[in-house]
Amino acid sequence: MPITPEQRDEIDRLRAATYTTRRATVPALEEILYQPIEVLDHGFVRVVDYMGDDSAVVQAARVSYGKGTKKVSEDAGLIKYLMRHRHSTPFEMCEIKFHVKLPIFVARQWIRHRTANVNEYSARYSILDREFYVPAPENLGAQAVVNRQGRGDLLEGEEAAGVLKLLRDDAEQVYGHYEEMLNHREDGTQIDPSRQGLARELARMNLTLNYYTQWYWKVDLHNLLHFLSLRADTHAQYEIRVYAEAMLDVVRRWVPAVFEAFSEYRLGGTSLSRTGMEVVKRLLAGEPVTQETSGLSKREWRELMDQLGRAE
Amino acid sequence: MPITPEQRDEIDRLRAATYTTRRATVPALEEILYQPIEVLDHGFVRVVDYMGDDSAVVQAARVSYGKGTKKVSEDAGLIKYLMRHRHSTPFEMCEIKFHVKLPIFVARQWIRHRTANVNEYSARYSILDREFYVPAPENLGAQAVVNRQGRGDLLEGEEAAGVLKLLRDDAEQVYGHYEEMLNHREDGTQIDPSRQGLARELARMNLTLNYYTQWYWKVDLHNLLHFLSLRADTHAQYEIRVYAEAMLDVVRRWVPAVFEAFSEYRLGGTSLSRTGMEVVKRLLAGEPVTQETSGLSKREWRELMDQLGRAE
Amino acid sequence: MPITPEQRDEIDRLRAATYTTRRATVPALEEILYQPIEVLDHGFVRVVDYMGDDSAVVQAARVSYGKGTKKVSEDAGLIKYLMRHRHSTPFEMCEIKFHVKLPIFVARQWIRHRTANVNEYSARYSILDREFYVPAPENLGAQAVVNRQGRGDLLEGEEAAGVLKLLRDDAEQVYGHYEEMLNHREDGTQIDPSRQGLARELARMNLTLNYYTQWYWKVDLHNLLHFLSLRADTHAQYEIRVYAEAMLDVVRRWVPAVFEAFSEYRLGGTSLSRTGMEVVKRLLAGEPVTQETSGLSKREWRELMDQLGRAE
Amino acid sequence: MPITPEQRDEIDRLRAATYTTRRATVPALEEILYQPIEVLDHGFVRVVDYMGDDSAVVQAARVSYGKGTKKVSEDAGLIKYLMRHRHSTPFEMCEIKFHVKLPIFVARQWIRHRTANVNEYSARYSILDREFYVPAPENLGAQAVVNRQGRGDLLEGEEAAGVLKLLRDDAEQVYGHYEEMLNHREDGTQIDPSRQGLARELARMNLTLNYYTQWYWKVDLHNLLHFLSLRADTHAQYEIRVYAEAMLDVVRRWVPAVFEAFSEYRLGGTSLSRTGMEVVKRLLAGEPVTQETSGLSKREWRELMDQLGRAE
């Protein structure tokens, strides 16, 4: 269960209250405001606040271009133009705040994105809950051979079962010892009243990296899109990609025209090197080109053929 | 007149429309939303959007401290605690967006604050208006002698009149030449249809630094307070300080508990050096201390005596 | 003359002294260390310090990949891989510090790049020199008609002469008045001993935007390359592009393998949209495609045909 | 053993080579360049590169103040002035790069400091070593009662022994299972050739937070000092404080004048609130003040009395 009954009550309370505002408001996003979107076995992501909409991007761009742009009459067209030419500052004019519950090893990848505001649950102050991530069997990939950081075939049978058992048992055991060191039971009572219990800031080091943490994460739309372009990508680890995909859906609700442009130019876009572009031109001119005559390494040639959809 | 009739209409239109939201909403800030607050002779600052309120700071801090802080029952107390101990991340959870019209030389100081999002009017794309800043006579300070970056006595009489005339005449003249180079009249027509007119990106270089520009400036509350602590300070140049003071008023409306804590611990606070604190302790112990026996330089001694309110 | 005799002496003094270090050192960059590279009519850029070399990028990447990358034996290959896959953090491990003298309107574009450290000459403290930029006749472009922020044909004859005269005369005049308001002559004496002189922080507002300022600008290699990819681009204003081009040469000396990869994948690279890539695939498959059947707007179609080198 | 024999050889090789440079060089820092300073049971911090020295701070400040500051003749005095008045940009002109080996739970605190460049060992690519942190008995603090995030008395006797045994045994066990899931022995061979082994990016989640990771961390002097002012503080967790203290020693070697000023005004400095300062003035005027008449809360009164060295 990703959220506690207390959190559920709090969410219901927040969702029940409405206010009158003069600010730009997005009904499709208001609809899901505060609602947790479940991710992995115990995680979630939920929007807790936002600022701006598609028009806020346009409004900012129009300040930059002043009277000079009266002719650009269509907002979606302007947004596509900005995205295509990497004019990023107007996208910084929208802001969103998420509450995320995620495994610690995912949090460690996520936090590399520095241009964001974060408040994380502190295990120095408080005791972490007994919640840890265990992959579903269909995500239990073997080490990839070619791509050193990826997954290959699925583990199966006994090997898979063995891995899942080890992960579960170790996580359970270290949590039991965490409580023992803290001299603390889940109901808040002490295990042994004659002991003091280890400091929380020390005891936490006994937990494994699949334990869940949570944080508020606030970011502007430009930096969110940058995050999503890296983390909703097939090269990203599955466990962070599912968060990115949930957030992509949020972006679609929030700023549909920006989402459209982002899909066309960034998520669905392709980068070609100088030499790769020369190859494309030669091919278009009807010249036969092979890896040997292309000027590309074998790896780059393979990547280019993939991009061009040419089975080799 | 700081705003154009078109801007006035746009503001009235925006203020007339209201929406229903589940987001945290601050009625005292809604009241002035979009309204320009006049600053200097043609400038303004106005709030065009915001995210969060006092409670958003508390909410973020409570995520950090988790269950461990149930006892801190009072929000204002928690906010004071955070401010006193420089726990800055919860203040980053609020965001505000201003539209500002300001002289270019003020914009050049302002932009040094890097942790903010900016979209500025572009004089590459568009033609700047004929609006420039001229100080009011009561702000026409002479160069300070001791403080190399400050102002001393007011200029008076002929000297003051001469300065004002030079500033006005030069600004008028360079604008006339700006239009002449652009081959462009304010009504949009060409001066001489046989000429092409210089590129805007070049012609603008003929304008003086007191011409007004404008931008959208979006910032989180922590970085806004940092900006205000430097720019609402008596060491800041008057022309940026008046913007900071107008924004301080906005902060008071928006997040009154944060404003209270900021006034007590930052704006009204004092930093003492290690040696300065030793002097205070010796004085409290009844020991007579002079600059010579204090271990402080003459300048630091004078600053400390000022801070302690001891006329020398 | 871009540098003063005092600066020349200082540079000669610095260049004459050598030290022994265990740090990574780049002889080709040491060769030009401290030497001003002239840019525009009075500007310059010069390297005053640096940290790291090509190997520092590799070293950082190897820490990330640990033992797992023993097979990537070739440094230049690894650098190309990092550049191609936008693994940017290893490039942040090199740092460079420039001293730049540049017109204020160029400084205003430059400062938008926020991830850098800057110390600028302060006209609150000190008096600016009588040095301003006037374009060479071959850079005196007319306003472009299609591209609202660009330049078109060159101005010629009387129109060009008129513009140059206006720029020069206005700049001279405002400087004269600047000194008059300051009550200050270039030799340091007062014009009228009975006057106080206006505060510097006010008098500077009378200068035009083509006056030169200077700053120290320190940046990591990743952010420098991002700056160069935008500012060494044909869409950048000529007056900032010449600085970017001078700095590109510095990068070539400093980190030749990084420069090579940057040229291949970024400067010389091409981005295609999802639909643009579909068009390329259809063309390669021998299908005739027109703008009408392409799914692209007229503008995007024209851009794509340009990229593919297909005259229409 | 914090470093491997391969690392030792690499360090010796680097230290043996010297180069000639025109850059500012600090012999006292060169002396320890590349040398690991041991921290905790298996960690270290070592300087791998640096840019600038005390003079670089002065040089940058002098650019800002231009000719206006000829009178500030003494460098140390200028550095103290900059530190006292929080003119931070000149301190950004120095840069340093550390290689750090540290437990993951320490890395998670450290990474909150966003204004730095980081390349961390990736457990997606590579296999982590069997090295984990276990506190020395003299650091095994009990949970503090008043300060929810701190440590109180030391654990003793059986309780201490029990904690150390749990930490060690769990860390050993999860590493054994890590290898089993990876199907990998430390010598590089497979445990069971018929199995594929779990992907590294998944297996790592079974490790506890006291396992060591390592990274390159590059930061400018201003942000380093900010980090040190928070992390070399008594409120910081012991396990990060020892790293901060080792780095403080590095700062003392590198930029002694900056270190001096930092100690006087920041590390050794005191912040007083508006009301706290009023109390000091009243006490100095001979007025008796109690908590009740002070306007301070009990907690703040206690903190102020502590700062003033007045036992209550």
Characterize the structure shown.
The structure is a homotetramer of 312-residue chains. Chain A has 312 residues and is α+β, with helices and mostly antiparallel strands. Chain A is built from 13 helices and nine strands. In chain A, the strands form two sheets. Chain A has a five-stranded antiparallel sheet. Chain A has a two-stranded antiparallel sheet with strand order 6-7. The longest helix of chain A is centred in the middle third of the chain and has 26 residues. The radius of gyration of chain A is 24 Å and the shape is flat. Chain A starts with a helix and ends in a 5-residue tail after the last helix. At the A-D interface, helix 5, strand 6, strand 7, helix 6 and helix 7 of A face helix 5, strand 6, strand 7, helix 6 and helix 7 of D. Strand 9 of chain A pairs antiparallel with strand 9 of chain C, so a sheet runs across the interface. Chains A, B, C, D: It holds the Pfam family Thy1. Chains A, B, C, D: Homotetramer.
